[in-house]
Design brief:
Elements (H helix, E strand, L loop, with lengths): L3 H30 L4 H8 L6 H13 L2 H11 L5 H24 L6 H19 L2 H4 L6 H22 L7 H31 L2 H31 L1
């Protein structure tokens, strides 16, 4: 009969194997999933002047379909129970990505999309490792608020790169950029509302304590796979 620690280790191993197989099957799709859709790009290129609602929609769509952003946010709120803590960390992330999104597009400063997305993958690994106490075990003291802000800056730079890929017209650029950013925030609120609600229900069950470690190991594996995909894409480009 396996003890609790052995059962949990076996669960982690099995979930890790399932996750690896799942992400392996999706690799061809994930390599393209977060790129700018050709239909969206053609639509944006046809716009001249302010177009608030289309850019609101595009911003929300980018966040809701951004599996890497969602994975990071899941890691951020995984153990947060108080609303003020959720607001604090999400605000740090929002401030970070808003700065580099707005600044990057307005100043025409982008970065290689593969590198940025690889760093976003690393941010997912970071949150998973932090959530299982990995940094504390080796004596590293990292200010989580600062880390979330820094990774928010990279997430925003990735968004800026995607927006510049859309080749937005300079006519009405600021208005459309603000609308896109607001759309991103609306998408983030939508995703986090669902995630926090689901976690609040899960925390009331014994399975949360039992499987929290396994869930964060899966998060780490997802981050490793996301990073690997982007590094491979960079080397092949």
């Amino acid at each position: 009969m396996l003890n609790q620690a052995a059962r949990q280790a076996l669960c982690v191993a099995l979930l890790g194997l399932i996750t690896a197989l799942f992400w392996t099957a999706l690799t061809p799709f994930l390599a393209m999933a977060h790129d700018v859709a050709e239909g969206d790009k053609a639509f944006v290129q046809s716009i001249e002047g302010p177009a608030i609602f289309p850019f609101l929609y595009l911003g929300a769509k980018h966040m809701v379909t951004g599996y890497d952003h969602i994975a990071f946010l899941v890691g951020v709120v995984f153990f947060l129970q108080r609303l003020k803590d959720v607001v604090l960390y999400v605000s740090m992330f929002t401030i970070g990505h808003s700065i580099t999104l707005m600044g990057g597009v307005l100043m025409g400063t982008g970065a290689n999309a593969y590198i940025i997305d690889a760093i976003i993958g690393l941010s997912v690994i970071y949150k998973g490792v932090e959530n299982i106490g990995g940094f504390a075990k080796i004596g590293w003291k990292i200010d989580t608020r600062l880390a979330v802000l820094v990774f928010g800056l990279f997430h925003g730079l990735g968004l800026a790169t995607k927006v510049m890929d859309l080749e937005v017209s300079p006519n009405g650029l600021l208005t459309n950029l603000i609308a896109f950013n607001v759309g991103v925030e609306l998408g983030q609120i939508l995703v986090l509302t669902f995630v926090v609600f689901a976690f609040n229900i899960w925390r009331q069950r014994q399975s949360f304590v039992k499987y929290a470690l396994a869930a964060n190991w899966i998060l780490i594996l997802v981050g490793i796979w996301l990073t690997t995909i982007q590094v491979q894409g960079y080397l092949a480009s």
